[in-house]
Amino acid sequence: MDDASVAAVGKLTEALETVERARGHLYSFHQLTGSADATLQEAVAGLRDAGHTDLADALEQDLVGRNVLQGRWTYQVVEEYDDGYWSVFREHEQRVRDALLDGRRHLYEASMKDRERTHGRPGHAAVPD
After folding, report:
1. Across-strand partners of 59?
2. What residues of the chain score a pLDDT lower than 50?
3. What is the pLDDT of residue 68?
4. pLDDT at position 72, please?
5. Domain spans of the chain?
6. I want to staple 76 with a disulfide (CB 3.0 to 4.6 A). Which of 35, 45, 68, 72 is the partner?
7. pTM of this structure
8. What's the burial of 62, exposed, middle or buried (CB within 10 Å: 0-12/13-18/19+)?
């Protein structure tokens, strides 16, 4: 495997890792929005219990259960991202690794580790014991 191919696949994998992080943030967005909606419902109940039914009704009718994007709750955003961009990105990264690196992962990092570690020193082993 030539160095240019290993470096290029390393960049592709780095891009996928960034997409994975973005996906994690999307799941955080999903969970935080759901949590906010549940807390909002508690606030609506509290306003209603305190006798502020008009304010509670307005919040309940306009905000509780509202779409975050046109026609979508957050789970639908997550599903669309997973089924579209994320899945396609992963498939392409895997196909390129299979074609150029026999499917091996993190080959760029493995070669960097071998270059940068101090052979024979404690804490610098090539692989786990």
Report:
1. none
2. none
3. 97
4. 97
5. 3-110
6. 72
7. 0.84
8. exposed
